[in-house]
Amino acid sequence: MRIPCPHCGTRDLREFTYQGAALAQPEGDWSPDWDSYLHLRDNPAGETRDRWYHNPCGTWVVVTRDTVSHAVTGGIAAREAGA
Amino acid sequence: MVDLIALTPCAGLLPLTVGNLALAEVDAGPIHLIAPFRGGQAATDAALSKALGLEMPGPQATTRKGAARMLSVGPGQALLLGAAPPALDQAAVTDQSDGWAVVSVTGPDAREVLMRLVPVDLHPGAFAVGATARTMVGHMTASVTRTDEEAFEIIVFRSMARTLVHELSEAATGVAARG
Ligand SMILES: [Zn+2]
């Protein structure tokens, strides 16, 4: 798998560390939303968004990819993705 | 009173010649990491330009003026080598002079050897003289820079110096054995 880093360009998977699903953090105090945020994950057959850390340059990337076709369709810096 | 002896990161390891590949330690002079604060890029570039005649490089690029040179190491971060930075009030500046091992890899097979260790396209069409990449050499995080057609410079953490020399010499031995 090759992953697009917004700073470095498309790079080999071995340069990245998987950092979990790209979910928006719930607002405010404890609520059932926080429980879902922490513990509940979809397991989509198709498009999914997750965070990857590009170890050499330090960029957190939100990657859009397809779990069926394995196509990687996009990567943007997490600080610009709002998630 | 004990007299301490200063040793370079690759002391006792380099220089080394394997086949037609030459590995040598580079004395890069002072090394500082420069990371402008939010909104401080223009002021930092202006101060660097005034004092040293160069600005911070863009992604995967290097800049150079005389002995001073900079290489991009991440978003909004660059290493300044070969010169002390001027006063920069709009950037975080960290002296890392003793923290890095700098090694030159020179020879007709330099790219062949690095291709075994670095997961980035180093063909001159994709990686011209002056290009730099934050990537890996084997399992080590490194900066790889093309300094000439057949010359690269690799920068790793000082503690990785021995591993770097081992990886490079092993790969070079393999390439040289092909004849
Ligand atoms: Zn990157």
TrEMBL record, chain A:
Stored InterPro entries: SoxD (IPR006279), SoxD_sf (IPR038561)
Pfam families referenced in this protein's UniProt entry, alphabetically: SoxD (PF04267)
GO molecular function per UniProt: sarcosine oxidase activity
GO biological process, one term: tetrahydrofolate metabolic process
Protein's name according to its UniProt entry: Sarcosine oxidase, delta subunit family
Lineage of producing organism: Bacteria, Pseudomonadati, Pseudomonadota, Alphaproteobacteria, Rhodobacterales
From TrEMBL, chain B:
Residues covered by the GCVT N-terminal domain: 90-173
Record's signal peptide: none
InterPro entries to which the protein is assigned, alphabetical: GCVT_N, TrmE/GcvT-like
Protein name: Sarcosine oxidase, gamma subunit family
